[in-house]
Amino acid sequence: MRDDVPPDGGADATIALRVQDWYAQTPAAPEQLRVRINEALGAVARQPARHAFGRRVHWSSVGAAAAAVMLVAVGVLAVRRARPARDAEISEVPFAIDAPHAARVALVGNFNQWDARATPMRRTAATGRWTAALRLAPGRHVYAYILDGKTWTVDSVAPRSGDKDYGSINTVLVPTGR
Amino acid sequence: MVVQSVASDETLVAQALAGEPQAFGSLVTRYSDECWRFAMRMLRNRDDAEDVVQETFLRAYLALPRYVARDLFRGWLFRILVNQCRTAMVARHRRERRFINGLDDEVQERGRLDPEPMDPQLERALGELDPLVREAILLKHGAGFEYGEMAALLGVGESALKMRVSRGCAQLRERLGGGHNA
Predict the structure, then answer these.
(1) Distance from C-alpha of A21 to C-alpha of A40, rounded to nearest angstrom
(2) N or C terminus: which one in chain B shows less Cβ crowding within 10 Å?
C-alpha cells in the first residue's frame, strides 16, 4: 500500500485504493505522442529564440514575451481538430507591423509551423510598414514577427491574451471567416 | 553486471540549459507517461490529453531558464500540466457550447473514445465531481503527491486540500454506492 492512502483503513482508504488501481492501469502514452513532442521541441529548438539557453540572445524588450507565443500553438490543434475548416470559411487575413529600420521581417505562427522562411513580409518603402496576407481558417491563431532574422516581437495592435503561468504576453488572432 | 548511472532531473535540466536538447528529451521520456496518465484521467479525452501533454513539455522547455532547482522538477512540471488541463477544460467548454445542437458531434466524440474503460463506474463518478475536487483526488491518490507538494503545486493551503480530497472521497462513495453503478 502506498503511503498516501489514508492510514485509518476506513472508507476513504477503500476509495483511495480503488482510485490508485484505476489510475495505475491507464495505458502508457502512445509512442506517437513522444514523437510529436520531440518534433515540436525540435522545431522550437531550430528557432532563433532557442539561443536563449546560454548562448546568443537577441530579444527585443517585448521579445522575451514572444517566446511564449510558440507555446500555445498546440492549443490551436484541438480547435482545428474539433471543427475542420470549410473552404467557404477561410478568409484572407492581413498582417502588418511598423519596422522602418528592419531589413527583413518574417511572419511566423502556428499556421506556418513557426518557419521563419515560410512567410516573408513586404516592405512599403514610404512608411516602413511590413505587410503580408494569409488565408486562414476561423479559429485561434498564435503568431509573432521576426525582425532581421533574430529579434522576435509581438504585434503591438493585435489582441493579446495573458499567459497566466509565467506572466508573458501572447499575440492571438481569431479570424471569424466570411 | 552492468551498472548504468541514471542522471538526476537536476543534472538533465542543467545539461538542457547548457545547450544539450537531448537532455530534455530524456526528461520527456521519463515523465511523458506520468503526464499522460494525469491528463487522460483529468480530461477524459485522448485528443485533448495529447495536446495538453505536448504543450506542457513545450512550455517547460521554454521556461527552463526560470526553473529554480529548489523545486522538484516533477512538481514544477505538474504545475504546468495542471494549468494546461484547466485551460483545456475551459476551451472544451467553449467549444461544446459553440457546436451545440449536434453540429460536428462526430468530430467531437471521436477524441473521447476509450476502447477499454477500466472501472467505468469509478470513471463516471469521478467525471461527475467538481473539476477542482477531481484534480485534487487524482494528484493525491493517482499521481501520489504529498499534501505539501500539492500545496506548492496548486497554491492552495494543505488543510484546504485535505478537505477537498476528503469531500471528494465522500462524494465518490455516495455515487458508487448510491445507484450510479451501471
Answers:
(1) 32
(2) N
Show which of residues 105-134 on chain B sit within 8 Å of chain A, judged by CB atoms.
Answer: 107-108, 111, 118-119, 122-123, 126
Compute the distance between CA of residue A168 and CA of residue A174 in angstroms, rounded to an integer: 19
d(CA B94, CA A172): 17
b/e sequence B48-59, b meaning 16+ C-beta within 10 Å? bbbbbbbbbbbb
pLDDT tens, residue by residue, A44-98: 776 654 434 544 334 444 444 444 444 444 334 444 444 455 565 677 888 888 8
Mean pLDDT of A18-46: 85
Q: Scan for cell 484505476, then name that residue.
A: A22
Question: How deeply is A61 buried, as exposed, middle or buried, from its count of CB atoms within 10 A (0-12, 13-18, 19+)?
Answer: exposed
Cell reading at B105: 458531434
Q: Map grid coordinates 492552495 to a residue.
A: B156
ipTM: 0.83
Contact partners, residue A83, CB within 8 Å, separation at least 6: A139, B95, B99, B104, B107
Identify residue B136 by its one-letter amino acid code.
A
For residue A13, with 0-12 CB atoms within 10 Å meaning exposed, 13-18 middle and 19 or more buried, which class applies? middle
Q: How far apart are alpha carbons B145 and B108 in whole angstroms? A: 32
| Predicted model pTM | 0.61
Gap between the Cα atoms of A175 and A177, Å rounded:
6
Q: Determine contact: B80 vs chain A, CB below 8 A.
A: yes
Query: What is the identity of the amino acid at B9?
Result: D
Non-local (6+) Cβ contacts of B154 within 8 A are: B79, B82, B135, B136, B139, B161
DSSP E strand boundaries for chain A: 91-98, 105-109, 122-124, 129-136, 141-147, 151-153, 160-162, 169-173
CA nearest B95: which of A74, A83, A71, A172? A83
Contact B124, B182 (CB under 8 A): yes
What confidence score (pLDDT) does residue B111 get?
Answer: 47
Give B24: exposed, middle or buried? Use CB within 10 Å, 0-12, 13-18, 19+. Answer: buried
Among A35, A36, A37, A114, most B C-beta atoms within 10 A, so best to mutate, is A37
